[in-house]
Amino acid sequence: MSTAAFPPPPQKVSFATDMQAAALRAKKEAKHHSRSSSSELVDEASPSSMQRSISTPSIASAAMVSSEQQALFEKQRQGQMMMTTYLSNAIKQKKMGNPSPYEELISQLTTTKPSPLPASKLLQWIQALLQCISLLDKTCQSLIEAILQLDWTIQDESFVQYYISFMGNIVSAHPIYLTPAMSMLVSRFRQRSISRSAEHSVTPQRQFDRVHQALKYILDLIPTGSTTLFPLLASEFPHKRESYGAHMSYVKNILHVLEYSPVLRSQVLGVVIDRIIQVDVEIQVELEELEDSDTELVFEVELPEEEEDSESDDDGSDSDSDSEADEVAVLNIKDMTNKLDGMLLLVFTYLNNYIESCRHMFSPDGTPPAPIQELFLVLLTVFMKTILHTFKSRHTQFLLFYLTSLSPQFSDYFLGALGQQILDKAQPQVLRVAAAAYMSSYVARAKFLDIRQIGMVIDMLGGFSLQVVEEIDTGSHIQPDTEKYAVFYAVVQAMLYIFCFRWKVLASENTDQPNRSVAEDDFGSAGMIVGSMDSPMTSTIGSAGSSANGRQWHTGLQGLQRIVTSRLNPLKMCSENVVKQFARISHNLNFMYVYPILEQNKKVYVPPSQSAYQRALQTGSATSTYGGNGNRAGSNNGSDYTILPHELDTFFPFDPYRLKQSAYFMDNIYQEWENDEDDSDEEEEDDEDDEQDYDDEEDDEEAVEDEDTTKSVGRHRLASVEEDDSDEESAQMNQSIMAMSISPSPAHFLVQGMNAGREDSNKL
Asked: Which residue ranges are recorded for the region named Disordered (predicted)?
């Protein structure tokens, strides 16, 4: 190897001295140019291969400016040539073992104190870098990182355009810089505190627009860059504890990314919904914790007087401490609720705007166009993979509720997906139970569903439940068990819940058909069987589904009587509020009478089985699957111990939507609870007559066998209970149906009360 290949020992020179040397070299190079070449003010040293990817601003020619401006342009041109020469030499010397000029250059670019480089000087450096793109390989990574850290979004338009051109050139020539460049852009989607000055008066929205311009430019140059972009979008998402502004800014910006990168729609909506669910679940957990603390607080307040006197100081300090903790918890819940509401509003708005942009493509019969169908399938996939697997989600699922309201085709697909989940025995039991809860709540609350769809759901649920009863209820050894038959109880509860909301749709007046008694073989008992549940009695429901008051009931309800009187005893295992509401409505409508079963169930003890759930509670591992920090179904490697050991948990995901900002998207599509006062008034006198008959029957049957005595006693007890507590229980049941049943805790009302108190004090 020739000794000429080794450079002489590096000499220590200052940055100014090196710049002077570069200036001399620049002057020598300028002698080779003609005088007329001074009018060419665009970058001459850019590689021809990169010209098509550069979109630098055009500058006026010398003929259009004065001689003083030409002199200024020439001075700037010489300064740029000098910087370009210095830059190329610094990079070359670094590769030959002398990093001092290179490091001093980075120091100049990253200087913030006492003052950073002026914008004009930064612009010259960006222009110089554009001339040396081919030299900026992976050995210059520290220099590129310094350039990426510049606060370029607040500069003037000329600087921004040169900077965007530089980013496009550097990622095209050296793909190694694609990830750092995109990471810098994505990080700027957060809300940032901008220093307002006379020199930099760029609004935050204008800065966001410039970031999107740069990101779109890079994606146009490198279409495969979307695979690099999505992980960055997910990793930069604000933590659920970060501020409201950070969440609003970020969600708004990444949804805007979908306008020029639609290939990311499924992934971006998936990550946004996943983060919304985290906040949604956190609110429910906070409410439950607040409820627990509130319960302890009430217990302390209700201590006996003598203990209060002896420990007044301690109790007062503890009470104040608990009160302050509750106050902090309420503020935290309020902040989380605002974030949830704001993010859902942004997603609802995105969906609405996208739909409106395709409104002209709808067919005359209302069939959604292909883009809307694709959007629905994206959201349905997100629901099946994320939302359905998440417990305690309170509002996030309404995104799909809103989208399905656009077309009966969408609601059919949604109901079909839920039905398939319920019927698929290969699925975890907990997911099948959740699907039944979603189906019942959806059918009850979706105002846009038609008779066909509601009847289809009742047919499916009724057929499934009746099949389970016929297969299992085969002997006296059968006992209720929520672990073994959780899906069955969930499906029966779904039928009862739907009946409470949709009985007007499921029944139509049938005045042509005369009233008649029904043979026992037609339908069997309508809930009059108590205790052993073996003796058939006459029902008021006909074999064709007609009742004594002339109503024609949907045929899918015909098996309900056999189901509720089976030894599986679903009225004992389903939610008490739902069962009571069903009993009251069905009795008022002369559809079915189940009060004797409810009375008898008060004496029925169902021992909790030593199930996997119980074992998990003992080991402390159950909370990670149901109701704990995990809140995800199926995270237990297939084990199904997530169902409560006795009464089926009340979970109706589409309970009333309580967020203020985004609630208007539910207008005209959401079914509120409607009380059945008219029907109860019509049959009030009949109820009184029935109660008197029950009393007479009890007196006449005192010496009869125990089974018959149990029946009459059950009736008598029910009559007395209804007489004393009917008004209070009716109000409580109506409230339980209308309120959110996922967490209808005192803490929920405590939060509302504290907020109302603050508003009143502010008014004063």
From this structure: 21-59, 303-324, 675-741
- Contact assessment for residue 741 and residue 577, using Cβ atoms and an 8 Å cutoff: yes
In one letter, which amino acid is 344?
L
- DSSP output for 526-554: SS---TT-------SB-TTSBBTTSEEE-
Which sequence spans correspond to the domains of the chain?
Answer: 11-175, 341-666
| DSSP class per residue in 138-193 | GGGHHHHHHHHTS-GGGS-HHHHHHHHHHHHHHHHH-GGGHHHHHHHHHHTTS---
Contact between 56 and 129 under an 8 Å Cβ cutoff? The reply is: no
Which residues make Cβ contacts (< 8 Å) with residue 433, sequence separation at least 6?
Answer: 486, 487, 490, 643, 648
In angstroms, what is the C-alpha Rg of the chain? 37
Of 368, 444, 362, 377, the C-alpha closest to 414 is 377
The residue among 734, 735, 764 whose CA lies nearest residue 749 is: 735
At residue 743, the 3 state secondary structure works out as coil
How far apart, in whole angstroms, are the C-alpha atoms of residue 457 and residue 443? 8
The tokens describing 289, both together, are 């914790």
**What is the mean pLDDT of each successive set of 10 residues along the chain, which is 764 residues long?**
41 47 52 40 37 44 63 70 85 87 84 67 88 90 91 91 95 95 94 54 90 97 94 94 92 96 94 94 85 46 39 53 74 92 97 92 87 94 93 91 95 96 94 94 96 95 95 85 90 95 80 36 30 33 50 89 92 92 93 92 74 44 36 40 48 91 94 66 46 44 38 34 49 50 38 48 45
Chain center to CA of 466:
35
Cβ contact 228:179 at 8 Å:
yes
